[in-house]
Design a protein that fits this description.
about 70 residues, 3-stranded antiparallel sheet
Length: about 70
């Protein structure tokens, strides 16, 4: 499963982002994406954190989510 981000650009140039959790399955030899959960509207700065949170824990490309105390 992974986080899929849909981007919608309006005529005035504003962009809105919408997130879903999606799973890939093979049906009759073709890959079909199935939406497992719709997360709704997200801000652009939230996207990397969502993707990292739903990555495989053993994936070497997974960034560490570290928060520094102030």
């Amino acid at each position: 499963m992974f986080v899929k981000i849909l981007e919608k650009t309006f005529k005035n140039g504003r962009k809105h982002y919408y997130a879903s959790i999606v799973e890939n399955n093979k049906v009759n030899g073709k890959v079909v994406q199935t939406t497992r959960a719709y997360l709704g509207a997200v801000r652009e700065d939230q996207i990397p954190y969502l993707k990292a949170a739903y990555m495989d824990p053993d994936d070497k490309k997974r960034p560490e989510l570290v928060y520094k105390d102030r």
